[in-house]
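Limitations
The C-alpha cells in this dataset are predictions for the assembled complex, not deposited experimental models. Users should treat interface geometry with appropriate caution, especially where small molecules or nucleic acid strands are included. An illustrative entry is reproduced here so readers can see what is and is not provided.
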Amino acid sequence: MAGPRIACIGVIGKADNPLHIALFPPYSDAMIEFSFLLNSCLDIFEIRRKQTSIDQDLGLLHAIDERLAAYGWLTTTGVKLLIIVDLFGPEATSARLVGPAVSGLRDSDLKPAFRALQSAYIQLLQNPFYSPDDHVPTPGVTAGSASSCQSISNSKFIADVKRIGETWVPGAGV
Amino acid sequence: MSATKASRIGEEIWKTRIDKVNAELVTLTYGTIVAQLCQDYDSNYQDVNKQLDKMGYNIGMRLIEDFLAKSGVGRCANFRETADMIAKVGFKIFLNVAPTVTNWSSDNNQFSLIFDENPLADFVELPDDGRAQDELWFSNILCGVLRGSLEMVQMQIEAHFVSDVLRGDDTTEMRVSLVRYIEDEMPPEEE
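Predicted assembly:
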C-alpha cells in the first residue's frame, strides 16, 4: 500500500545536539543527507521561535522537494522533535512515480506521531538510570566536536521510535 | 484470620485512614536514591543491595509502629497469618499493592510474595552494563522493611528477591523465611 510514510525521525536536544536520529526505508543508508536536512530545519525552529506565542506543534516546517516534507514539534524545555515524511511511500521507489503525491496531508495527521514520540521521550527521562546530563554538550565546546555529548543509547527508546516510524500512516493512531 | 478478611481490612484502612501522596513522587525519589547509590558505590551492586536492605531495615523498625496504630490488628496466630497480614494489609496500606502469597514450604516457615505490580519500579530500566541485570535487586529496600518491622514484633526473618521483571524475569518474587521467634514467648500452636 503506497502512501505517505515517515522517512526520518530526529530528536534534537536543547543545544541543537542530535540525541537520536532514526531512518526508515528506503532511506536507511542516507544518514548524511538527512543530517543536513535536519540541520537546516533547526534554523527554521530558531526563526519560528522568535515569533510570539508559538504552539508546541510547529506543523510543516519546510517542503524539501515534491517528495519530502519536514514537520516539527518544539517542547517548552527546548527539545526538538522532527519528522520528515516521504509523501510517496517506500513502494514508489522501484516503480515509476505515479502522478503527483497525495496532497492532502494535514498538519494534524502528524500529531499522533509527535505525541507518541513525546511520551516515549518522557518515559526515557523518568528512568532513574538515564542521566540527561550526559547528553548536554559541555559549555564552551563548539558544536563541531560533537563527540562531547552522546546520543541516546537506550534500547527501549530506540525501539519505540522505530515502531512509531514504521507504523504511522495519515489519519491513524500510533 | 483468613486472607479475604485481611484483604478487607487492608482495603478499608487504605480508603479511610491513609494520607496519599503522588505515586510519581515516590517512584522518582526511590529511583534517584538507587541510581545515586549505584554511582556512589561505583556500580558495586552487591554493596548497593546491602545498603538498600539496611535502609529498609531502619524504615521497617519505625514503620511497624505506624502499621500497628493504623491497622489496629493484634497478634497473628501463626506465620501463615503473618504472611497474609504483610501482603494484604501492610503492602496494601503503604504501597497500595497486594502481592500474592504462595509457594509455602512444607513446614510453613517459608513463603513467596509475587508482585503483580511494583510502584517502586515503574519507568525503570536497569543500566545496560552487563552486570546490573544479574546483580542489582532494584527493590531490595522492601526486603529490609520486612526484616526490620518483623523483628520489632519478635520475628527474625530472612528475605530476598529471587526474580524481578526488571531483569527480564516473568514475575517479581520475594522469598521470605522465618528464622526464629525472638524471646522465649512462643506463639500459640498451629492448627
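Some entries come with short summary sentences. For this one: The interface with chain A takes residues 24, 27-28, 31-32, 34-35, 38, 122-128 of chain B (CB under 8 Å).
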